[in-house]
Each structure stands twice: as structure tokens, then as C-alpha cells.
Design brief:
With 294 residues, the protein is α+β, with helices and mostly antiparallel strands. Helices cover 24% and strands 32% of the residues. The chain is built from eight helices and 15 strands. Strands 3, 5, 6, 8, 12, 13 and 15 form a seven-stranded antiparallel sheet that branches. Strands 4, 7, 9, 10, 11 and 14 form a six-stranded antiparallel sheet that branches. A hairpin with a 5-residue loop joins β12 and β13. α2 packs across α4. The longest helix has 12 residues. The termini are far apart.
């Protein structure tokens, strides 16, 4: 205990700006813990330098473009928790929603052999899930339809990144969206869309990457592994793209919310047919936002 107090005391000798910069590379949970450790750390841990790092890179545009008033805030920490407490109305007054990775039910997600959890400075989530190695890939999310705007067509997007050493992700995953509700004690499921193939990494790009690795070449960036339309064998197959925030996303499907709808919506993503090792996937979450109907 004496050694720990000594370490804290030496750390506190650093300039507040230096301490704040160090804490900004951790997570919101770590920042709150640091603020509770000592009075000396509290000021740095609650500074705007720290909490602005935890906000989305485009938070100014998000707040200014929202049709839903944001609670008054005097610090970036207050803004962070204000955005966490309630989603914003954007895109012409329609609700958008982000299901963070901790809100997803990930197969073996609680086993550190298969998945680990970490914080990334460019993520909107306090934690992201990092795939270490699995044969079966599976995740699902369940949320209430009332969270979204009525009379609106929505699309669900898996938001993710790829590690340089990713492997086995060029097999098609299955994505589905179901409406689930109870009637007289029985569960009723309605499949809103047929199951779609989603390619996190296309088969063509996966083969090219394996060739580069065998030749000792660089594995490439996230954008290098995007699915090209020419790689797809079915018009309903889903294509990855780079987002403005630097993450990747792939559409999992779309659905319509009618006025007065009250039920749970379940989104499933899985790849259990090809029993190869899969690794190197970083999941931020599933984003729900209005989709233009062509």
C-alpha cells in the first residue's frame, strides 16, 4: 500500500496538462476511477482535454445537426454523459441509435481466450470487442422498436475495424432482422427481410491478402479489404465501405417502423458454416439510422 501511495504521489508531481493527456488515452471508466483516487488527479481526470477525446470526432456536427435539444452542459464530461443518456434526433428529425459492443450478445464474448475488450481513442464506445480467435462467429442485438422514429425505414450497420493480422473473415456471414413480440404468452417472430450474405472481407481480397503475406508483403489498411461489387455473386450481398470517421461499416439489412409498433427487434450476424479460424475483427457496435428508399 505504501508503494502504491508513493507511485501516486510521484505521478501527481507531473503537470496537470501532462496527466490529462495520459488519462485521455484510457477510457471513460478509467478516467472516473482516476478522479476518485485523489484530489490531485481529480482536476486532470475531469478536464475537457480528457473527455473531448472520448467524444465522437464529429461531435460538434452531431450536436449542431440534432433536432433534439441537448441538455445544457458546461464541460465535455457533462456532454459525454448527456449523449450517453439519450440518443439524438438527426437526419431530418429522425432518431438514430448506436448499440455499442457491450450491448451485443457475442458468442464467447465473456471468454478472454476468444474475445478481449479494450478502449480506442477514435471510438464512440467506452469499450470495443477484439476477436482473438474463434471457429464460429456469432453476435446478436435486441432492442425496443420505441427507440426509433415511427413511419421510417431503417437500416442496421455493423461498425468495425480490421487488425493487420486478421484472418478467416472472407467467408460470407449471415445477417437477419426479426420482429419479436409476445401474444398470449407465446413468442411470435416475423422475419422482415430474407437472410443476407455480408462479407466483412471479400473472398477476392482475402485471397490477395494471403498471397501478399506468403510473399512477405504488407497486409494493407482497412480500406484495402473492402468488398468490391464485382466480387459479389448475389445482388443482395452486402458491401463494406469506409465511414467518414475512419471505421468500416456493412449494412446488415433494413426494416420499417410503423406508427404504434411496439415490439422487440432482433439482429443476428453469424458465420458457422466454414469452420476455419477467424481473428482480427474489432467491433464497435451496430448503428441504426434512417435509410433513403430508392
Amino acid at each position: 500500500m505504501a508503494e502504491e501511495n508513493s507511485e501516486i504521489s510521484r505521478f501527481s508531481l507531473l503537470a496537470e496538462g501532462c496527466i490529462a493527456n495520459i488519462i485521455s488515452f484510457t477510457s471513460p471508466k478509467d478516467a472516473c476511477t482516476a478522479a476518485a483516487v485523489s484530489v490531485g488527479l481529480k482536476s486532470a481526470a475531469e478536464s475537457d482535454t480528457v473527455w473531448e477525446r472520448f467524444l465522437p470526432p464529429d461531435y460538434v456536427e452531431i450536436v449542431s445537426g440534432s433536432n433534439s435539444p441537448v441538455a445544457a452542459y458546461s464541460t465535455k464530461k457533462e456532454l459525454f454523459f448527456s449523449l450517453c443518456d439519450s440518443p439524438l434526433l438527426i437526419d431530418g428529425g429522425k432518431m438514430c441509435y448506436m448499440l455499442c459492443s457491450r450491448q451485443l450478445q457475442i458468442a464467447w464474448g465473456d471468454n478472454l481466450v476468444y474475445w478481449t475488450w479494450s478502449s480506442l481513442p477514435d471510438s464512440r464506445s467506452a469499450e470495443v470487442a477484439e476477436l482473438q480467435s474463434v471457429f464460429w462467429l456469432g453476435m446478436s442485438a435486441i432492442f425496443q422498436s420505441e427507440l426509433l422514429s415511427p413511419n421510417t425505414n431503417y437500416a442496421a450497420y455493423l461498425v468495425f475495424k480490421l487488425m493487420e493480422d486478421h484472418e478467416g473473415l472472407d467467408c460470407p456471414s449471415k445477417a437477419s432482422i426479426k420482429f419479436v413480440r409476445e401474444k398470449n404468452g407465446s413468442v411470435i417472430e416475423k422475419v422482415d427481410k430474407t437472410i443476407s450474405n455480408v462479407y466483412i472481407v471479400s473472398r477476392v481480397m482475402g485471397r490477395r491478402r494471403r498471397i501478399r503475406l506468403r510473399r512477405g508483403g504488407f497486409s494493407g489498411t482497412n480500406a484495402d479489404h473492402l468488398t468490391n461489387a464485382d466480387d459479389l455473386t448475389n445482388a443482395d450481398d452486402r458491401v463494406s465501405r469506409v465511414r467518414s470517421d475512419g471505421w468500416l461499416e456493412i449494412e446488415l439489412g433494413d426494416f420499417f417502423i410503423c406508427d404504434g409498433d411496439k415490439f422487440d427487434i432482433q439482429i443476428d450476424v453469424s458465420e458457422t458454416e466454414h469452420l476455419n479460424w477467424k481473428r482480427g475483427l474489432i467491433i464497435e457496435g451496430i448503428e441504426l439510422r434512417p435509410k433513403e428508399v430508392s
